[in-house]
Specification:
Pfam families: LolA. The chain has 215 residues and is an alpha+beta fold. It contains 2 helices and 12 strands.
């Protein structure tokens, strides 16, 4: 092996070691986020959702909130309320005066639920540390996630994590078609006093609604 080839091999080895160390750092931080999320009895989040596609001239902003306890949740977003009681999802659409009832298999990896949105990164992605930003005095560490499945329509995801609290600050998804969606957490509250029937659908509240049972 020539001296030049040896030097190149050493450089490549050091680069690989650096990447491996960086990936471990990213994994350790993601593990801390997951542990923090699982330590809470419940979580209440207010968020902003933005969708942008410059090519299609699309710019949309929406606000929403979600209350979670285990795999149960109540989500209010774009005028629609979704309640998941642990077995069934109740989608309430006031505009149509309709409630759609469907069963959800929580073990289905393809089923996207609010609770999974806080720990989705634990499988199916390659990841490494990205930039650090100062947001109103908060140190936000970004981790870049790349889906391992070629069928995934997302090119990459940037996950912003508050270094001090280990809470997710925002999530930026870039699609292969150029669409960028950003979910920003405006308020993150934990262990709140919740109603006993917080995740129970009460049909009597919707006497004029059409109940559409899919299962």
């Amino acid at each position: 092996m020539t001296k030049k080839c040896f030097q190149m091999a050493v450089i490549l080895l050091l680069s690989f070691t650096s990447i491996q160390a960086q990936d471990k750092k990213a994994k350790d931080l993601l593990n801390e986020v997951t542990a923090k999320i699982k330590s809470y009895d419940n979580i209440v989040i207010d968020f902003k959702y933005s969708l942008n596609n410059a090519k299609e001239n699309i710019n949309q902003d929406s606000k929403g909130n979600v209350t979670m306890k285990g795999n149960q949740y109540v989500l209010n977003f774009m005028g629609v309320t979704k309640i998941f009681d642990g077995q069934k999802t109740y989608t309430i659409v006031p505009e149509d005066e309709e409630v759609t009832v469907s069963k959800v298999n929580e073990k289905d990896d393809a089923a996207i639920t609010p609770s999974k949105m806080l720990t989705f990164f634990n499988s199916g992605y390659k990841y490494n540390m990205d930039i650090v930003q100062n947001v109103k005095g908060r140190k936000i560490q970004y981790i870049k996630l790349a889906p391992t499945s070629t069928k995934d329509q997302r090119k990459e995801i940037l996950l912003g994590i508050d270094v001090q609290t280990k809470h997710i600050y925002n999530l930026i998804e870039t699609g292969k078609n150029g669409t960028k969606t950003t979910l920003t957490v405006n308020s993150f509250k934990t262990n709140q006093p919740l109603s006993k029937n917080q995740f129970t659908f009460v049909a009597s509240k919707y006497p004029k609604y059409y109940i559409n049972k899919l299962d």
